[in-house]
Design brief:
By secondary structure, the chain is α/β, with parallel strands linked by helices. It has one domain: Uracil-DNA Glycosylase, subunit E (3-Layer(aba) Sandwich). It is built from 9 helices and 6 strands, in the order αβαααβββαβααβαα. It starts with a helix and ends with a helix.
C-alpha cells in the first residue's frame, strides 16, 4: 500500500491540464471508504481531504468527529479525481477522468477490511453504479437502499447543495439517520 500511495502522490498524469497535487488518505485497514468528487481549492492548498465547509457538513451527516474521520483505520478517502480540477462557470470543474480508471482498482485491491463505500455525488455514483444509476442523483439517493450493503449513495455536502436539501427534506429526515446508524455500527463493531 505504501508503494502505491507513493506512486499516486507522485502522479503527473494530467499535468498538462492542471497543477497536480493528489489528495488521497487510506490504509489497508480502512473500514469506510469515502468516494467523493475532487479536492476544492482549500483542500488543494492544505493537502487535507474534506478540510472545508463540505467536509464539516459531511462529518455532521456521518455523526463523527474530526479525529474519527481522519483515522485511516476507520475512513479511507479516495476521490474520483485526486487533484483540484480548476474553476468552471458555476463552481469547480468536474473531477479529471484519468484518476479513477488508473488508481481506484489498485487501491481497492489493497484494502482488507471495507464494510461500506460512500458514493458522494453523481460522478462517483455513475462510475460505480453504472446502469444501476437512476435517471438522476435525486432518484438514485431516494433509492439508496437498493445499493446496500456495499454502497451508500448521497448528494455532495457542498453548501451549494442547500437548495437540493431544501427541496428534498426526506434526505436529512430519513436517509441521514440510517447512514449514522450504519456508520456507528461499523465504528463500534
Amino acid at each position: 500500500m505504501i508503494k502505491l500511495l507513493d506512486e499516486i502522490n507522485s502522479c503527473t498524469l494530467c499535468e498538462e491540464f492542471i497543477t497536480p497535487r493528489p489528495v488521497v488518505k487510506v490504509s489497508k485497514k480502512s473500514k469506510i471508504i469515502v468516494v467523493g468528487q475532487a479536492p476544492g481549492t482549500r483542500v488543494h492548498a492544505s493537502g487535507i481531504p474534506w478540510n472545508d465547509a463540505s467536509g464539516k457538513q459531511l462529518r455532521k451527516w456521518l455523526s463523527v468527529s474530526d479525529e474519527q474521520f481522519y483515522d485511516t483505520n476507520l475512513f479511507g478517502i479516495i476521490p474520483m479525481g485526486f487533484c483540484y480540477p480548476g474553476k468552471g462557470k458555476s463552481g469547480d470543474l468536474p473531477p479529471r477522468k484519468e484518476c479513477a480508471p488508473k488508481w481506484h482498482l489498485p487501491l481497492f485491491n489493497e484494502l482488507e477490511n471495507v464494510k461500506l463505500i460512500l458514493l458522494i455525488g453523481q460522478y462517483a455514483q455513475k462510475y460505480y453504479l453504472k446502469e444501476n444509476f437512476h435517471k438522476n442523483l435525486t432518484e438514485t439517493v431516494n433509492h439508496y437502499e437498493d445499493y446496500l450493503p456495499e454502497y451508500f449513495v448521497m448528494p455532495h455536502p457542498s453548501p451549494r447543495n442547500r437548495f437540493w436539501l431544501t427541496k428534498n427534506p426526506w434526505f436529512e429526515e430519513h436517509v441521514i439517520p440510517d447512514l449514522q446508524k450504519r456508520i456507528q455500527g461499523i465504528i463500534s463493531g
